[in-house]
Design goal:
Elements: H1 22-39, H2 51-74, H3 79-108, H4 111-125, H5 129-137, H6 153-180, H7 184-217, H8 223-234, H9 236-239, H10 244-264, H11 277-289, H12 299-302, H13 305-331, H14 337-345, H15 347-363, H16 365-369, H17 371-393, E1 449-450, E2 459-463, E3 469-475, H18 477-480, H19 483-493, E4 495-502, E5 511-512, H20 518-533, E6 541-545, E7 551-552, E8 558-559, H21 560-576, E9 580-584, H22 594-600, H23 605-608, H24 619-628, E10 633-635, H25 638-641, E11 650-651, E12 654-655, E13 657-659, E14 662-663, H26 665-669, H27 672-686
Parallel strand pairs: 1-4, 3-4, 3-6, 6-9, 9-10
Antiparallel strand pairs: 2-4, 5-7, 7-8, 11-12, 13-14
Helix pairs in contact: 1-2, 1-13, 2-6, 2-8, 2-11, 3-4, 3-6, 3-13, 3-15, 3-17, 4-5, 4-17, 5-6, 5-7, 6-7, 7-8, 8-11, 10-11, 13-14, 13-15, 19-27, 21-24
Length: about 700
């Protein structure tokens, strides 16, 4: 980021009106220091992630200052020169880090991550990765995804998108100024405030309240932060008039606000939203103070040589530290010292990149006279990064694959899984471990499983659309995983299948044991579902399951029994309404992604990748509920997942796990004959 973790400017006198501001360089050091401290996992600054918000304000300040001066000088904005300056400053260092990260991914990370990480690298090179991460952040199926070594490029993507939008907007406002003879700076201030700052802030507050994970990454919730810096850049004629003492007090208060925010805020605070006003207004106060406070203000601290030195390296430090932190966590996952060491070590490649890449390219005569060479360089480096990312995503070796149509899966254990033998010799399998996370029930492709954060209720239909017998699948993702088997049964027997699925929500009258407002949203969803299932949408049979282990009773205590009682309340209402209930037990949860282990152990995956035997996490509460309601049927899948108390990674040439504790659609489908008898019995009991 040229004014995010920014590139250095040459030393100059610290005059308030100079384009080089030592206090700005020092403020960059504060911002990158907060981010590095936070990513190192050190104590006391749990809100250090707000350093990125400080960078946004600095970016808006510096870039807008350049554009406004150009408008005042020429009456227009030269877009080629503007984009050329950005390209030669930002792209060479970014490309250096992205290409190095490609090598790091191939050397350190499991092959199952290469596809995702390669895609992240390509998206980072194109400065679109923030939108990719936003989608992943609200994707329930992405819970296994490791932290991306280029995740930090999200903020660079926001800034690059800002760099595209901002000069166009200022250019449009400059046209208004020329045609109306309005004063330049007041017109720009009103225009930017009305068109960007206020709408973006309002949207940021709203989206953070309803969908905080997505709000964190998307550009629309961050533009106001850059806009705050832009408004500071527009008003120096006002700031220089401030009394020296007042300006100094404002500056120190701003610096203290940044520090206190980093110390008192943490990841439990929805971000950005209104909470991000703390670091952004603090940074704005420091910038405003720099016009009039002189040595009485934060300039005294921020212009110190160590601060300006770190500020000069801030862009390269920001680029380099995160890939090394993530790689260190991969190599030494349990070592608290690993992220700290990675941050310290990152100073070396950051300094080398600054001296050998950033500076030489930025000041080379070829890129300083005309815009075209710099623009060509930027385009070339972008293409190289994108192609390198795609190469990584396709580099993983493919496992020996079995024909899905002939792989028996659970059928290999019939008729008695307790007595069946499972070969421990490695062999062909399906799905490919590299593609396991994509072996999903069909309802995901149709967005039929809604997020816990979503409002309302969504249903989808499968099986025979004209079927007279209706089977409802109700619960969280653990009932979703059984759709492939139920769908096959339904097609063969003429049943219609209707899904009522919400991620992470057990179908229980008691509160789920969850943090924040999620428990309340789950309970509201459950109320809507039970009203439908006992009303006009009454099915013949309800099948349910869940991964939830505890509920919250009326006294606020968490227990298995509380969740079981909540299950029983709903199940009894269904039985009283003439709806038969079947419960599918939960399956054991691996301690690490099974598909990753299998891909990394091609010669001994059957022994190296076994899952510890246990009841599924959600099973005790489900069984507790069945003991409270007569007539509820239980389908125990544990023997078919862990035959003879041994939980194999592959059974009957089928890989069992796709994500978290969820089974692959292929293996779930192979349990059709296990689920069918109970489902048929429930249907027959419902018939008059």
């Amino acid at each position: 980021m040229s004014a995010g973790p920014g590139t250095a400017a040459p030393p100059a006198a610290p005059a308030a009106t100079s384009r080089f501001r030592p206090d700005v360089e020092g403020l960059r050091a504060v911002a990158v220091g907060l981010v590095l401290w936070y990513h190192a996992g050190l104590p006391w600054l749990d809100g250090g992630f707000a350093g990125v918000d400080v960078f946004f304000v600095i970016s808006g300040f510096l870039i807008t200052g350049q554009l406004v001066r150009e408008v005042e000088r020429t009456g227009r904005v030269s877009l080629p020169r503007f984009y050329a300056r950005r390209a030669k400053r930002l792209f060479p260092a970014a490309a250096t880090v992205l290409l190095s990260t490609c090598a790091l991914v191939l050397a350190v990370f499991p092959t199952t991550t290469w596809k995702d990480f390669g895609g992240d690298i390509a998206a980072s090179a194109a400065y679109l990765v923030n939108w990719r991460l936003a989608e992943r952040s609200v994707d329930y199926l992405a819970e296994d995804t490791q932290q991306s070594p280029v995740q930090h490029f999200w903020s660079l993507a926001v800034e690059e998108q800002y760099y595209i939008l901002w000069p166009l907007l200022i250019l449009a406002l400059a046209v208004v100024v020329r045609r109306t003879s309005l004063p330049v700076r007041p017109t720009l201030a009103v225009g930017l405030g009305a068109l960007i700052v206020l709408p973006s802030l309002a949207w940021s507050v709203h989206l953070t309240e309803v969908e905080a994970p997505r709000a964190y990454f998307v550009t629309t919730t961050r533009l106001w932060e850059l806009g705050i810096g832009a408004l500071v850049a527009i008003g120096p004629h006002l700031w220089v008039r401030a009394p020296r003492a007042a300006a100094a007090a404002l500056g120190w208060a701003g610096l203290a606000t940044i520090a206190l925010g980093a110390a008192l805020q943490d990841t439990t605070v929805p971000w950005p939203g209104s909470a991000a006003l703390v670091p952004t207004l603090g940074a704005a106060a420091v910038l405003v103070a720099g016009f009039a406070a002189g040595d009485a203000g934060p300039l005294r601290l921020l212009r110190l040589r160590p601060m300006t030195w770190v500020g000069a390296l801030s862009y390269s430090l920001y680029l380099w530290h995160w890939p090394l932190v993530v790689a260190a966590g991969q190599v030494w996952p349990d070592a608290a010292w690993a992220p700290v060491a990675a941050v310290v070590v990152s100073v070396v490649p950051a300094w080398l990149t600054y001296r050998l890449v950033e500076g030489p390219v930025r000041h080379h005569p070829l890129f300083s006279v005309r815009a075209r060479p710099a623009l060509s360089l930027g385009l070339a480096l972008t293409l190289v990064g994108v192609l390198a990312g795609f190469a990584v995503s396709r580099a993983a070796p493919q496992a020996q694959l079995a024909d899905p149509s002939s792989a028996p899966g659970a059928a290999a254990l019939a008729p008695d899984p307790g007595r069946a033998s499972v070969s421990t010799e490695p062999g062909p399998m399906t799905p490919d471990p590299l593609e396991a996370t994509e072996d999903l029930p069909s309802l995901y492709a149709e967005n039929c499983q809604v997020s816990v954060a979503d409002e309302g209720l969504k249903t989808c239909e499968f099986g025979d659309p004209d079927g007279d017998t209706v089977v409802a699948l109700v619960g969280d993702s653990k009932i979703s995983q059984w759709l492939p088997a139920v769908e096959e049964i339904a097609k063969e027997r003429g049943y219609k299948v209707v899904t009522y699925v919400r991620s992470a929500c057990a179908f229980s009258a008691t509160l789920n044991a969850m943090e924040g407002g999620a428990a309340q949203r789950c309970q509201e969803w459950g109320t809507q579902v039970i009203d439908r299932l006992t009303g006009d949408e009454r099915p013949d049979v309800v099948l349910t399951s869940s991964v939830r282990s505890e509920g919250v009773d009326s006294a606020g205590d968490r227990s298995v029994e509380a969740l079981g009682e909540g299950y029983a309340t709903y199940w009894q209402r269904l039985e009283d309404a003439g709806v038969r209930v079947g419960v599918i037990t939960d399956n054991p949860a691996p301690q690490e992604p099974v598909y990753t282990c299998v891909a990394e152990h091609p010669d001994d995956y059957m022994t190296a990748c076994q899952v510890p035997f246990a009841l599924g996490q959600g099973t005790p509460a489900l069984l507790d509920g069945t003991e409270r309601v007569s007539g509820v049927e239980v389908i125990d899948v544990l023997p078919w997942v862990c035959p003879a108390d041994t939980c194999w990674p592959v059974i009957g040439q089928v890989l069992l796990y796709r994500q978290g504790s969820h089974l692959t659609a292929t293996y779930a489908r192979s349990l059709e004959d296990v689920i069918a008898p109970t489902l048929e019995r429930l249907v027959e009991q419902d018939e008059p």
